[in-house]
Amino acid sequence: MSNKKRINSKIHSIQRKKELKIFSLACKNATIIINRAIEVSRNYINSGGLIPYCIYSEKIIDSHGDEIIIPMLQIIKYTYPEQS
């Protein structure tokens, strides 16, 4: 195998590992978000109707240049409809 082919193979391998790492992180983030949604749902059921309500969200840029959205939450009491 020539040096050029070896180098190209190594570059391809590094890119593949990078893509797999990004995909793995995306899956972990999705799992965290789903688990938080389940937790919020359970807390809503167990708290007698207290639910987080998103007032607005703020976007910030981290040191790597990635955009992060931070929701600003307020806790509100859900009023159940009266049963007749």
Summarize this entry quickly.
This protein is of the alpha+beta class. The chain has one helix at residues 3-46; strands at residues 50-61, 67-77.
Give an account of the 3D structure.
The chain has one helix at 3-46; strands at 50-61, 67-77. The protein has 84 residues and is α+β, with helices and mostly antiparallel strands. The chain has one domain. The chain has a two-stranded antiparallel sheet with strand order 1-2. Strand 1 and strand 2 form a beta hairpin. The longest helix has 44 residues, at 3-46.
Features:
84 residues; two-stranded antiparallel sheet; 2 strands; 52% helix
Chart the SSEs and their pairings:
Layout: H1 3-46, E1 50-61, E2 67-77
Antiparallel strand pairs: 1-2
Oligomeric state of the chains in view: single chain
Overall 3D form: elongated
Number of domains: 1
Beta-strand portion reads 25-35%
Q: What is the percent of helical residues? A: 40-55%
Query: In angstroms, what separates the terminal alpha carbons?
Result: 82 Å
Q: H/E element string?
A: HEE
